Amino acid sequence: AGILLSTAMQLGPPNPAVFSLAGDIQNNQGNYPAALTAGLRALTLDSNDTSAVYVVGMALSNSGQPQKAHPYLSRALGAFSQEAPLWRMYGVSCSSIGKMDDALLAFQKAVDLDPTNAGFVSDLGFTFFLQGRHEAALACYDRAIKISPEMGLAYYNKAMAYHAMGEEGKALDNLNRARNAGYPGSPKFQAEVEKAAHQAVPAQPSGP
């Protein structure tokens, strides 16, 4: 398929659909710079090509440029409103520009469309956490762990929530679970929680 697309792009008349398809394939293969190039080329040929808008938005998101991706993702949602990964990336882009309520709605939509995706559920939880809604965040992390018991990031995020709530023992327990699941996290945060947990332990009586 890649060879046929390459030939069509080089020899045939310029066709936005061909460039959009090529960009989609490159996105799926993790070649985001090539996907971005193909998607932008399609948009120069047809600025209303929603598939190309989708390709560009996802390529920018996956290459760590959520703010630049935001307008493309917003446009793409009109045509691809049932795509859970698109809603997830849109949520990330909203968060990157401070639109936390929109981010929360986007992550919730991603979870509604794909309720067994632990990553989407964890993203929703982290958005609750950023809003200071720690109990709601913990509920999401527990749900993510139920879906994927070895998800170290979810345990780590639980530790952050418990730490913010002043429950240092639970925070330390979840940090240890995260590390056992292969997610070491920040040594600085680990040390901070360990210190807080130690200080929270009541001093023992020193004899009669």
Give a description of the structure.
With 208 residues, this protein is mainly alpha-helical. Helix content is 75%, strand content 0%. It has 12 helices and no strands. The longest helix has 14 residues. The C terminus is likely disordered.
Write a concise keyword list for the protein shown above:
single chain; 12 helices; 208 residues; elongated; disordered C terminus; mainly alpha
Set out the fold topology.
Layout: H1 2-11, H2 16-28, H3 32-45, H4 50-62, H5 66-76, H6 84-96, H7 100-113, H8 118-130, H9 134-147, H10 152-164, H11 168-180, H12 187-200
Helix pairs in contact: 1-2, 2-3, 2-4, 3-4, 4-5, 4-6, 5-6, 6-7, 7-8, 8-9, 8-10, 9-10, 10-11, 11-12
Brief summary:
This protein is mainly α.
**Secondary structural class:** mainly alpha
N- and C-termini, Cα separation = 83 Å
Which regions are unreliable across 5 or more consecutive residues at pLDDT < 50?
A: 203-208
Task: State the total count of DSSP E strands.
Answer: 0
Helix content: over 70%
Q: How does the major sheet shape up?
A: none
Strand content: under 5%
Order of helices and strands: HHHHHHHHHHHH
- Nearest-integer average pLDDT: 90
Treating each run of at least 4 consecutive H or I residues as one helix, how many helices? 12
Globular, elongated, flat, extended or rod-shaped: what is the shape? elongated
**Whole-angstrom Rg:** 22 Å
